[in-house]
Structures are given as C-alpha cells and as structure tokens.
Automatic annotation (TrEMBL):
The keyword Transmembrane applies. Pfam families: DUF2238 (PF09997). The keyword Membrane applies. This is Membrane-spanning protein. Coiled coil: none annotated. The chain crosses the membrane at residues 7-29, 35-55, 62-80, 92-112, 128-150, 170-191. The lineage of its organism: Bacteria, Bacillati, Bacillota, Clostridia, Eubacteriales. InterPro entries: YjdF-like. Keywords: Membrane, Transmembrane, Transmembrane helix.
Amino acid sequence: MNKTGKFTVVIALIFEMTVLINGISALWGKQWEDLGLSALAMALLILPFLLNYLANRAELKLPPGFLLTGVVFIFLAQYFGEIRKFYQMLWWWDIFLHGAFGVLSVLFALYIMQSNFKKVSQLSDSRFTLFLAILSLCFSIACSALWEMFEFTGDILLPVKMVKGGLEDTMSDLLSGSLTALITAAGYYFIWRFLHREKTKI
C-alpha cells in the first residue's frame, strides 16, 4: 500500500491555494490566459494523488517520495514555468525541467519494474539488467513525447500558449529529456556491471 504522508498533503494544499489565489486575481483582472493556466495547474496537482490511488487499487508499489516529487515538479513546471513566466525569463528553465523529467522517469520505471518483474531462470542477470535499462529509457522517451502532446493539446483547448517556439521548442525539449534519460539508463546498467563484474556474463 502506497501511503499518503501528511507533509505531502500540506505541501500540495499550499501549492493549490497559491495557484487558486493567482486564478482569482487573473479572473478579477480578466487575464484569461493566466486563468486557464491556473485552472490547468490546479487540476494537474491532483494527478499524482490519482496515480497513487490507481496504483493502490492495482496493488502496484510506487517509489518512495513519488507523491511529493510529482507535486513539486508540477508546481515548478506549471506555476513557476508557465504562470510566473520562468520559461521566458530563464532560458535554461525549460531544458532543466525536461532534463530532470528524463532522469526521474527512468528511475521511476526502473523501480516499478524491479518491484514487479521477475527474472526467468534462462535469462542472465546482466541481460535482465540491460532489458530493464532499455525499457526504462523507452518509457522515459514516451513520457517526454506525451508531455509535448499535452502542451500542444492545451494550446488548442485552452486560452494558453505553452508551446513557445514551435518545432524548435518541441525538439529541444524532447532531446534534453531523452539525453538525460539515456545517460541515466546507461549509468544504471554500467554501474550494475561494475559492481557485479566478477560474475557478469552477457
């Protein structure tokens, strides 16, 4: 059972109230884009708790700190990035978040697979570890692509503009996320091989 810590709930409520206040201010000032971004951020902050609930229903163990990490990441991306315009003010903010997302999604996938997959006896430990690394990399790249689809869809359905630079913005986001994911997955595999070098065989 994945527990929901009180500290995480308090942090999430603080974030929700912060975004709500911004949304009310945007409504009062008829700033429709900020209002749309605030509504979107409030909805997204609930997403980690929804995933936690679904994981509990499916008896799937999530990584420790998943809820807190998810809530903080969404707040950094939506509130600071979109609402507070960090994406425009700091050229590296978008790259930083997508790079961090690449690392976190690989670690998330590795934890889920290690906790729920069982190695068949015919498969060597080295090949199983390589399989986990490759699959976690693919998972991370797929999640990065979904993020870009989410931004594109949001621009169509809501009065917002999350895709700032068109194709160049999309590809730089995908590349930064994929590169950090590749480094993380490769690092996991080669560190494992180094630690088990005496008995490693492909």
